[in-house]
Design a protein that fits this description.
The structure is a homotetramer. Chain A is α/β, with parallel strands linked by helices. The first copy, chain A, has a single domain, classed as Aldolase class I (TIM Barrel). Chain A contains nine helices and eight strands. Chain A has an eight-stranded parallel beta sheet with strand order 7-6-5-4-3-2-1-8. In chain A, helix 6 links the parallel strand 6 and strand 7. In chain A, helix 1 packs parallel to helix 9, helix 5 runs parallel beside helix 6 and helix 7 packs parallel to helix 9. Chain A is globular and about 50 Å long. Chain A starts with 9 loop residues before the first strand and ends with a helix. Chains C and D meet through helix 2 and helix 3 of C and helix 2 and helix 3 of D.
Chain lengths: ~230, ~230, ~230, ~230
Amino acid sequence: MYKKEAFSPFMAVNPKSYFWGKTILELALQCDKIAEETGVTIYFTCPFTDIRMVKEATKIIQVTAQGMEALRPGRGIGHILPESLKEAGADAVFLNHAENPMTISELYRTMRRAKELDIFTIVCADSVAEAKAIAMLEPDIVLAEPTDLIGTGETADDSYIKDTVREIRAVDPDVGIMIASGITTAEDCYRVVALGADGTGSTSGVVKADNPAQRVREMCEAVKKAHQTKEQ
Amino acid sequence: MYKKEAFSPFMAVNPKSYFWGKTILELALQCDKIAEETGVTIYFTCPFTDIRMVKEATKIIQVTAQGMEALRPGRGIGHILPESLKEAGADAVFLNHAENPMTISELYRTMRRAKELDIFTIVCADSVAEAKAIAMLEPDIVLAEPTDLIGTGETADDSYIKDTVREIRAVDPDVGIMIASGITTAEDCYRVVALGADGTGSTSGVVKADNPAQRVREMCEAVKKAHQTKEQ
Amino acid sequence: MYKKEAFSPFMAVNPKSYFWGKTILELALQCDKIAEETGVTIYFTCPFTDIRMVKEATKIIQVTAQGMEALRPGRGIGHILPESLKEAGADAVFLNHAENPMTISELYRTMRRAKELDIFTIVCADSVAEAKAIAMLEPDIVLAEPTDLIGTGETADDSYIKDTVREIRAVDPDVGIMIASGITTAEDCYRVVALGADGTGSTSGVVKADNPAQRVREMCEAVKKAHQTKEQ
Amino acid sequence: MYKKEAFSPFMAVNPKSYFWGKTILELALQCDKIAEETGVTIYFTCPFTDIRMVKEATKIIQVTAQGMEALRPGRGIGHILPESLKEAGADAVFLNHAENPMTISELYRTMRRAKELDIFTIVCADSVAEAKAIAMLEPDIVLAEPTDLIGTGETADDSYIKDTVREIRAVDPDVGIMIASGITTAEDCYRVVALGADGTGSTSGVVKADNPAQRVREMCEAVKKAHQTKEQ
């Protein structure tokens, strides 16, 4: 069984709106095997319409909703009711992604709703400063994407990743730390976990691979190997 | 089989975020019988997570999504991809509800996406002027809620409803016209259809009834009776 | 004095956020002369902070706010109160620009607020269908930008412009019609007015010119000449 | 002259959209005297259209914009360009008010723009947790409104205010702390400053007073007295 205390190391497989229906189900089934065989926790996102189907067909992966809102049962057409996600089988949710940003107030209300319903939260930040701010709100995992660097000509070098991890740990030693900007290969995954992240994730690295499941397997094995190195 | 040419008379059963999961499935099954027995087209809305389950369990009702966006397959986490709704079984979609309003540009793009995928559109308007504007965009059904009157002390009397229908027909003689503000009883349903609407709908009248399915049945029978009166 | 009945031909000079403060004041003063000398109505937009200063320094140009909201005096921090624009001297307002889109409901409420306060409305549409929808809401001027064509490989050729004008006129013969997509030269201005528009407008054609005021003068003269051709 | 190091004690006079034009100018002139006579820093908000007029007519008050956005000079119609506020004379800006909430990413970008232009930031938080998160982003003042308590039946008692101040200080000892929820009398102002806040603020307490300027004077005197008590 899944335990929040033991989510590390992890890999977020996030096909966004590239895959849905049968395609996402097929990848989910393969990820379920990979999670079982590697022991890496996989947060697997899918469209809202596919959550129930994916959950019913799998045993190991953490079925992850692409978003959620804070509303309670009652009025509210077109919004994402937390209870509807939970009942359909969602284990976790991505919040505040750059493609779906939230106000601070709505984010915090939604995070409290997730806690009520025991839905695991992965909350995205666009910069290290924002990651530290979000860490104050007590997410389960904070996803730091160093877009601070965008347009600066710098790359997310090793020292940058180490600093990011250290700064977030200083705010909350227990929060899960995911670093995921521009991860496309197994080597990228190895590097960020070796440098201190608890996990990583990928969209384009997976959906644009010739064999997406094979790519996920390589990435999970890299994450596991990097994690083991740290434990020694 | 469902034909757009023959959607009249219709009844929108719109439990919003009051029902989900098992509760919505149960009501859907009962509505399926009611639609079959009365011949009234039922647009049955449910949370995104329940579309596939409701569609697989029913034969007659028009499974209706609570919203949709214009994005295409690719990036876009947390957004409502049209293809994901279609594949899960959505027949129709509510757009621009006052609880989930859209910019004109996003609404029109989304309506074109719905046409591409043969998803039936029910587009909401907050006033008669807005209903006429929306009719120019060629929805399948325009839902006119006379919130023009809110706060004026006037009620939506018979002449108001007749005028609303006449003004929308003048813009587009073929669009489906739904009038639904404050519909809580079968008598309310009878009245708006007798006065010219092609159909009506209800949220609170259904979800707050002691027996929601019984209330839907009474409403559908009233809609059918009013429609037959007009045909004679 | 300005009369709505006599706004044609017109030119919208829309420096967006390229100019503010002293720079916008200087251009406004020059436009005031150009408007007087050519007889072309100039809708001159400026940042909210500059409306009062520009209005106090000019006599002829129509000082135009970049946006407005529907709120009434009372609560509402950070929002654009119609009364605050009117008192500062705004004659007109741009609404629903693609860079600042509005929901249909908020747009219509704001247009009614503009009427209450006698503020002239220039309402933007992203496509011909949207322009026709907006015309149903009775703006003073509808701005049609044929973004329908974007990405199709087609250009906005003469027949397209003529069709756009004809379709909008069919909805409302009295609405002012502005066509402004990609207008960078005086020749562009001449063409759209000669083909039927009541006026046109420009941002980049003006702000990126070596001499913005000289460019406005050429454009206004072209608009006037095209308009005179139509009157004969 | 104004120094950030010496902003304490302060009072935010925030008439929102209740006052504009001549009415706001009159109150601003009176506040300028009050600020001079009491030595309390007054952050005086006004509509965007009135910033230049209020700044030109006053010497002591901190002229405060009701909001701002992160855009840079260029495109962007209807948005609040930082440079346009600065040039008009804004000293400070309110950000993320509950009536005008921002995404975390947009808030942080806007705060960095404010720093570039030396505009003082007053950033609002809906709860203590959010206030702590915002403190990580290094605002000049964080405004904590204990809406945590709304609907709980509890009031913001003394221990609550002390705890709020202590928790924010633990994150950033140097940030200005404003507590302002439901402040309507001079006694309310005295209390929150005596309990640890650096300042407070009021909307309805001022705009609904028979004599708004007299109310501001009483409030500033109370703030000053509470501050002096703490210094002893």
